[in-house]
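Aim 2 progress update. The chain analyzed this quarter is reproduced below.
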Amino acid sequence: MDKSDEALPPLPVKAETITWLKERLSAGPQRIASLVAEWCGGQQTQSKGTIVWEGGRDGTNGRLLAEMMAARYVLGVVALPDDAGCYCWQLPPGQQ
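Predicted structure tokens:
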């Protein structure tokens, strides 16, 4: 077996990051793009009558996208499309 075929261990993730993501997803599925923008220091804006998060860059506020992705792995978050075809993250059944 080639070393590239082996699964890499998950990155260390802070409890605060897991808590942040779990809180956001506890109300139900959330669009991935909005979660990423909020995590990375984006701004809230209004779009089509809804408040959304836009902008933000990886690491500019001291938060790295890789850490949020590791928290997603720890929580067992699943991705699924919403009615508009935008992908959302959702906590697995029993964790909501």
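The CA atoms of residues 41 and 61 lie 6 Å apart. Residues 15-25 form the longest helix (11 residues). These observations will guide the mutagenesis experiments scheduled for the next reporting period.
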